[in-house]
Amino acid sequence: MLLKKSFVRKLRNLIVIFFSSFLIILGGYFYISFTREINALHLSIELIKNLITEESAVALTSNITHISFIFTTQLILFTSAIIMLLASLWHLFQLYLVQMHNALVDPLTQIYNRRAVMYALEKEIKRSQRYKHPTTIAMLDIDFFKKYNDSNGHVAGDKLLKRFAKILRKEIREYDTLGRYGGEEFIIVFPETKLNEIKKIAERIRKIVDKTIFSGQENMPTKNVTTSIGLAEYNGKGKMTNDQLIQLADEKLYRAKESGRNRVIWDHEE
Q1: How many angstroms separate the Cα of 17 from the Cα of each of 61, 89, 98?
Q2: How far is CA 106 from CA 113, 138, 164, in A?
Q3: Are residues 50 and 158 in the same domain?
Q4: What is the pLDDT of residues 133-184, one digit of tens each?
Q5: Are residues 159 and 252 in the same domain?
Q6: Which strands, in side-by-side order, build the sheet including 227-234?
Q7: 257 vs 63 pLDDT, higher one
Q8: Catalytic (active site) residue 54
Q9: Cβ neighbours of 50 (radius 10 Å)
Q10: Which of 55, 77, 104 lies at the terminal end of a domain, its last residue?
Q11: Among 46, 75, 104, where does a domain finish?
Q12: Is residue 253 within 8 Å of residue 137, measured between CB atoms?
């Protein structure tokens, strides 16, 4: 996944550790400096006491105490300013994470959008070319979705998309990448996995969707909600691009639609 929760947690922990270390070092520096200044002042007092009257020494001690108070006040103000600066940086970091999330995630289904999944697919194709590992993708489409939308309304259609995405997210592995390709079409990237292994996952997803009861499904031509799935594999040999691999999977998806829908179609592709 592009924006793993574990990665975000690690990044946040590193920032907290950095900020905490910075504050500790800053506090230590001022403490050492303050201690040295006080020691030097006390030593000066002892030397001056031997040279001037006791009354003058008391006055000098009072002045030094006043200077120490000013130094401590400045230290507190400076530390407060540093804390406020760090808090502002932390707030900016949170805003950055929100912006990153919005740029990569589909707002309706809360899975990756097309841009994000295309980036993930490009990375996996390059890994396949480098290490000769297979990369398999699945293109999924909700059958008769337009009919469902027209019969039940767009609000119901949005709920169907969200529930469908939730099913997909639950059935895939943690390191797979799920995204909404557009409309009612979804894509899953399976890294370092052969097509034979993905056929089982795709068939399981198809059966789960077929058996799930969706509101308004009685208005569908088949009286239930189904999905058609096309699979394509790239084994790392030869050249391959995102568009080429997606086109291969899309052709299988089209064949699944043409042959009756609610089925999984695949072929091995070089």
Answers
A1: 41, 14, 22
A2: 5, 18, 14
A3: no
A4: 999 999 999 999 999 999 999 999 999 999 999 999 999 999 999 999 999 9
A5: yes
A6: 177-182, 185-191, 135-142, 227-234, 264-267
A7: 257
A8: no
A9: 7
A10: 104
A11: 104
A12: no
Give the active site residue among 124, 184, 233, 269: 184
Residue 246 has pLDDT above 80, yes or no: yes
Residue 182: helix, strand or coil by DSSP? Answer: strand
The letter for the amino acid at 135 is T
pLDDT digit string, tens, across residues 73-89: 766 777 777 777 777 77
Residue 90 CB partners (closer than 8 Å, separation 6+): 15, 19
Same domain, 25 and 151: no
Residues 84 and 147 in one domain: no
Q: Structural domain of residue 233, as residue ranges?
A: 114-267
Residue 232 in domain: yes
List, for residues 83-137, the tens digit of each pLDDT value: 777 777 776 666 666 666 667 899 999 999 999 999 999 999 999 999 999 999 9
CA dihedral 60, 65, 71, 77 (to 10 degrees): -150
Maximum Cα–Cα distance for the chain, whole Å?
110
Structural domain tally of the chain? Answer: 2
Q: How confident is the model at residue 269 (pLDDT cuts 50, 70, 90)?
A: very low
Strands (E), the chain: 135-142, 177-182, 185-191, 227-234, 264-267
Same domain, yes or no, for 246 and 131?
yes
